[in-house]
């Protein structure tokens, strides 16, 4: 078995997370699912070092919170759930902020804008974009970091169906090149595009494994209070998939 690069042990934050442990290897694409208030955003914020919780987080065996700030900025990036922008920076500058931990070297900025289909917006002030366009700018900034741990909180929120599928494919491609991704999702059907799924409920981890193992009708009924009907609904794919 491959050795884990990202390990969490006993993460605990009163009222928000209860004794969460997991370990993922390089190249794992992980969907984090659960009902509203289950703790998904909290978990990503704790991993990103934005919230302090009891327990340990390790990156390649080292205590992640003890790694100096700039070095950590090269290891992980976090995309928050909100896409609000306070300042009217041009889009390209916002994407380039992703290179802060690398001395603002500008590497990968064009490629990230291409991957998120925002090149045509490069000179527009971010405050004058639509919600979905802003989302893609912030995703491009996360991508531009080149960080091997990508923590994305509802990346596809506000995105049209084509751009949402692009983002899910991007997640797969990043995992294919060795990044480890934790991505929160609400549409359980999209969880099947990931290697692994973590199911949170009321702050606790109630399922961890492959989507096929974990997302059983029984678990879905218990956690989400809906009936799962395999094969039902509209299957959407990119045209070349
Ligand atoms: N700033 C905060 N201070 C205290 N408690 C909070 C704060 N933000 C969220 N919570 C609580 O922590 C718990 C987990 O919230 P969290 O935002 O992590 O859930 P989530 O699974 O991401 O939900 P959603 O699907 O609605 O985004 C909830 O009970 C919530 O009320």
UniProtKB/TrEMBL annotation:
One of its GO terms (molecular function) is ATP hydrolysis activity. Gene3D superfamilies: P-loop containing nucleotide triphosphate hydrolases. Residues 1-227 form the ABC transporter domain. It holds the Pfam family ABC_tran. SMART domains: AAA. Keywords: ATP-binding, Nucleotide-binding. It comes from the Bacteria. InterPro entries: AAA+_ATPase, ABC_transporter-like_ATP-bd, ABC_transporter-like_CS, P-loop_NTPase. Coiled coil: none annotated. PANTHER family: ABC TRANSPORTER ATP-BINDING PROTEIN, HEMIN IMPORT ATP-BINDING PROTEIN HMUV. This is Iron ABC transporter ATP-binding protein. It comes from Mesoterricola sediminis.
